[in-house]
């Protein structure tokens, strides 16, 4: 039976009054960490043990586990049953999705992103790692460093997690052997030498026996480092973002009356003070911070990751997706950049695919210009590839329809990150980490390419056959208002030249095989509705950059 | 259907005054464990004001900033969001966060209460004054058809009753209101299947959740793309725990329904459970009679399906203390989650929050 042990979080009547207790509780820090590993490594057991030892498990949840139908191991408590949430997972005895767990100690509140370890769940690992400040990479002491250990470390590194705990588990099954531990430690440090982790902390543990989990055990006197929980309580919570350059993406404009125009958002990095000069991107206009307004009163300064609202000294045209920065510390601005990409969809990604790109508070349409390489997760080599399949990680070049303002992911995990959305299925299909802007090469002196025209115009060339004259005029106006280079012409005009110039050409008919016959489309009678339908059609076939038409920027 | 809403009345106003006064009670009623130091409590509040010298935010301020980010993101990207307001402590916290997110503007979306008509009277009174007192626009929806046909948890069973008065009512309200995003106050620590739910939880045309086909959710970048008829349930409190919620209520001095505080209430004691008798739906067993028991509600639901817990906790700090001493998951006293193993997951697949 589980006896109600003394709860380290609970109040000890002798030593602590409720108000002292609350004061301490309210000043806790937050640490988010991820775990990756398969059932065989004992990951669920380790988390169950952590939660249990930290008294994070409520008594009745334990009761319901004892009633549970599946029981994978004999013995007292199966800690792993505490953590597997969904029915399918309980039936199959595996962890397939990211699950979030919470526990606290007197010093910190912890959020665990518990992710599956198998290769087919790389995307789930990446998801869990994206918000983590620390990762626990779990190794079975009997097996040593395996390909999946490398994969976990690689993903942790790619997703920018600064600290790694190498938890060598099941030490009880190798007689708590120092040699075994030292060998694994050396192997891991060797292969991860090129990763840019700030710190790697190897810890020998036995999750089953609780050795070195919450407290230091007695069976490994040769180990003089911290127990896992001790380390989690003491590891620095990265405050580096406060001294980084200011990045304030505008999420929402608050305008309750004519006298107040506030720009609301969460500071991605850096510090902002009343009176600070700021540059508004993309317009490049400058102003100063007039006030920092919050529900709790005005502030003189604010820092990441606070959610605030600022007003500026001057009237400026600023909307969602813009970014406020300090003038002397500007981010990169580019339409074309190179990024590491985790591909998350069933259908493979090939170069040329048009997708929506969401970065901070802005959404733009983008094309995958090329796939530079694919990371072989077994050998850690980057190899040329024509496509990326589900769970592949590759380096890609992205062409966005308009410039985005970013930092390299290694410098800033929020302004360096983006997701890719399939405009047809609406699914989140890719997670990207920007490596660098692609500068226009000095040798780009040849002909302007169709891609460059597409970039500038936000649409490709098209020949649209439309016999309905009034509708053709309406469509020309719609496309023009939309920012397109468009011309409605009489039949027989030199449409091939106009096409080559990147225009959208509308005419009753064309003697050109590239023409799109809109007369075949089942169009609504109403001209406005018909124009809408054609716009949607052009968006779907990739002629129009999608965000300009349907992008959710309305405030 | 959406219910016609009464204009604020004098009685509501009186109620609001009493409830406000009740706010001060908790501090006076602090446990007499050692000397109560009001000055000290004040110091805590002060020390938690934003201070630039702090290298990082406290966990509550970090959670707050994350939730506000989510609220603003939804308000910016969806055409017609709505906030599900269940009157409980989580809704109260969510509502405060919404005030903060859009300050000094008004909350740019309405609140929606799905009223099963079996709620506690004190909940309905609270609902009718508190949101209005902060200028929020509250709508109430009742599945009148089912209610008029006599739906209740005893004759139908809890799962059918919830299906009609909560799930069906919610889906109808969302479609009649044309809402494309709905905030809910659910937290991942409440129940095992919630632990895997996304902050943006995608629902198909029928409001159903497909746990195996969830959109990956990375960093703080959310995918708000949906087709006509589809919707997103959004959970800004995903990363909060029950204790976090109470700490925040304490820190922010948020008014909550008095049912959370212990006092003698008429209850039927059955086995280990305390059953409130407010709507007289649950038939008494031979020999049973309501008796006055010092108790409080740990979570608020419908009277026939929400048990009370024996408690002396008359203030927020006392509730926090109680929670830490007496660790029982708050949903334990809600019958619905215990129908069968994984029952919450089944309900959610069908469209439940």
The CATH architecture assignment of the largest domain in chain A turns out to be: 3-Layer(aba) Sandwich
Task: Tell me the CATH topology of the largest domain in chain A.
Answer: Rossmann fold
Mean pLDDT over the residues of chain B: 81
Number of domains of chain A: 4
Share of helix among residues of chain A? Answer: 10-25%
Name the shape of chain A in a single word.
globular
Task: Outline the biggest β-sheet of chain B.
Answer: 6 strands, mixed
CATH level-two architecture of the largest domain in chain B = 3-Layer(aba) Sandwich
- Main interface pair? A-B, 98 and 88 residues
Please give the domain count of chain B.
2
DSSP strand count of chain A: 28
Give the strand content of chain B. Answer: 5-15%
Q: What is the oligomeric state here?
A: heterodimer
Q: State the separation between the terminal residues of chain A, measured CA to CA.
A: 57 Å
Give unreliable regions of chain A as ranges.
1-14, 56-62, 68-75, 548-555
What does this structure look like?
The complex is a heterodimer of chains A (555) and B (353). Chain A is an alpha+beta fold and 555 residues long. Chain A has four domains: 18-234, Rossmann fold; 241-325, Elongation Factor Tu (Ef-tu), domain 3; 332-437, Elongation Factor Tu (Ef-tu), domain 3; 458-550, no CATH class. Chain A is built from 13 helices and 28 strands. Chain B has 353 residues and is α/β, with parallel strands linked by helices. In chain B, the strands form two sheets. Chain B has a six-stranded mixed beta sheet. In chain B, strands 8-7-9-10 form a four-stranded antiparallel beta sheet, with no helix packed on it. Chain B starts with 9 loop residues before the first helix and ends with a helix.
């Amino acid at each position: 039976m589980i006896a109600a042990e003394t709860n380290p979080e609970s109040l000890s009547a002798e030593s602590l009054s409720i108000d002292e207790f609350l004061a301490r509780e309210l000043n806790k820090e937050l640490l988010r960490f991820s775990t990756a590993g398969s059932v065989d490594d004992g990951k669920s057991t380790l988390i169950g043990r952590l939660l249990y030892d930290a008294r994070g498990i409520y008594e009745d949840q334990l009761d319901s586990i004892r009633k549970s139908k599946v029981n994978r191991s004999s013995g007292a408590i199966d800690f792993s049953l505490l953590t597997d949430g969904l029915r399918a997972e309980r039936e199959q005895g595996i962890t397939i999705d990211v699950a979030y767990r919470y526990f606290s100690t007197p010093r910190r509140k912890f959020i665990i992103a518990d992710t599956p370890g198998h290769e087919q769940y790389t995307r789930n690992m990446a998801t869990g790692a994206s918000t983590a400040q620390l990762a626990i990479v779990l190794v079975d002491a009997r097996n040593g460093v395996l390909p999946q250990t490398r994969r976990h470390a690689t993903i942790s590194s790619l997703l920018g997690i600064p600290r790694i705990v190498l938890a060598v588990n099941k030490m009880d099954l190798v007689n708590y052997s120092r040699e075994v531990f030292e060998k694994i430690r050396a192997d891991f440090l060797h292969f991860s030498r090129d990763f840019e982790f700030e710190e790697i902390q190897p810890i020998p543990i036995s999750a089953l026996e609780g050795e070195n989990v919450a407290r230091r055990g007695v069976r490994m006197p040769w180990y003089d480092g911290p127990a896992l929980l001790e380390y989690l309580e003491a590891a620095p919570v990265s405050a580096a973002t406060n001294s980084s350059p200011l990045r304030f993406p505008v999420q929402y404009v608050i305008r309750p009356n004519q006298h107040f125009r506030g720009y609301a958002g969460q500071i991605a990095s850096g510090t902002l003070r009343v009176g600070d000069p700021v540059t508004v991107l993309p317009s490049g206009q400058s102003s100063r911070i007039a006030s920092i307004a919050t529900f709790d009163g005005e502030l003189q300064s604010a820092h990441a990751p606070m959610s605030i609202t600022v007003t500026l000294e001057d009237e400026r045209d600023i909307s969602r997706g813009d970014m406020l920065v300090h003038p002397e510390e500007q981010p990169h601005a580019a339409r074309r950049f190179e990024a590491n990409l985790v591909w998350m969809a069933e259908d493979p990604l090939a170069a040329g695919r048009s997708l929506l790109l969401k970065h901070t508070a802005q959404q733009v349409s983008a094309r995958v210009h090329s796939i530079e390489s694919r990371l072989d997760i077994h050998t850690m080599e980057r190899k040329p590839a024509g496509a990326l399949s589900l769970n592949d990680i590759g380096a890609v070049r992205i062409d966005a329809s308009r410039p985005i303002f970013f930092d390299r992911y290694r410098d800033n995990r929020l302004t360096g990150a983006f997701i890719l959305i399939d405009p047809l299925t609406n699914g989140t299909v890719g997670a990207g980490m920007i490596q660098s802007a692609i500068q226009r090469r000095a040798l780009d002196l040849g002909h302007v390419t169709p891609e460059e025209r597409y970039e500038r115009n936000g649409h490709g060339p098209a020949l649209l056959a439309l016999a309905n004259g009034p509708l053709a005029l309406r469509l020309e106006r719609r496309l023009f208002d939309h920012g397109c280079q468009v011309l409605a012409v009489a039949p027989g005009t030199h449409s091939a030249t106009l096409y080559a110039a990147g225009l959208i050409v509308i005419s009753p008919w064309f003697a050109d095989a590239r023409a799109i016959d809109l007369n075949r489309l089942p169009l609504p009678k109403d001209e406005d509705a018909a124009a809408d339908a054609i716009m949607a059609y052009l968006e779907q076939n990739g002629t129009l950059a999608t965000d300009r038409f349907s992008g959710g920027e309305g405030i | 259907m959406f219910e016609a809403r009464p204009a604020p009345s004098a009685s509501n106003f009186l109620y609001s005054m009493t409830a406000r006064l009740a706010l001060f009670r908790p501090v006076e009623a602090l446990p007499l464990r050692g000397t109560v130091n009001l000055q000290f409590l004040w110091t805590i509040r002060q020390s938690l004001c934003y201070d630039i010298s702090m290298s990082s935010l406290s966990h509550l301020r970090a959670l707050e900033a994350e939730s506000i980010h989510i609220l603003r993101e939804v308000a910016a990207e969806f055409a017609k969001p709505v906030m599900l307001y269940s009157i409980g402590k989580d809704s109260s916290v969510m509502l405060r966060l919404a005030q903060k997110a859009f300050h000094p503007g008004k909350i740019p979306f309405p609140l929606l209460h799905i009223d099963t008509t079996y709620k506690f009277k004190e909940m309905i009174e609270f609902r009718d004054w508190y949101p209005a007192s902060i200028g929020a626009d509250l709508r109430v929806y009742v599945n009148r058809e089912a209610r008029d046909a006599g739906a209740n948890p005893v004759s139908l069973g809890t799962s059918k009753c919830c299906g009609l008065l909560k799930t069906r009512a919610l889906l109808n309200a969302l479609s009649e209101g044309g809402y494309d995003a709905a905030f809910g106050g659910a937290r991942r620590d409440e129940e095992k299947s919630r632990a895997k739910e996304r902050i943006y939880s995608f629902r198909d045309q029928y409001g159903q959740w497909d746990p195996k086909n969830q959109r990956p959710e990375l960093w703080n970048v959310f995918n708000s793309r949906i087709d006509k008829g589809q919707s997103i349930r959004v959970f800004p409190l995903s990363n909060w725990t029950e204790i976090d919620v109470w700490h925040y209520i304490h820190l922010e001095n948020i008014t909550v329904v008095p049912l959370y505080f212990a006092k003698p209430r008429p209850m039927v004691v059955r086995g280990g459970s305390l059953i409130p008798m407010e709507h007289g739906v649950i038939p008494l067993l031979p020999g049973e009679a309501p008796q006055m028991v010092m108790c409080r509600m740990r979570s608020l639901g419908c009277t026939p399906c929400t048990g009370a817990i024996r408690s002396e906790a008359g203030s927020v700090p006392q509730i926090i203390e109680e929670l830490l001493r007496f660790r029982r998951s708050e949903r334990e006293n809600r019958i619905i989650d215990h129908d069968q193993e994984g029952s919450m997951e089944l309900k959610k697949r069908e469209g439940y929050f």
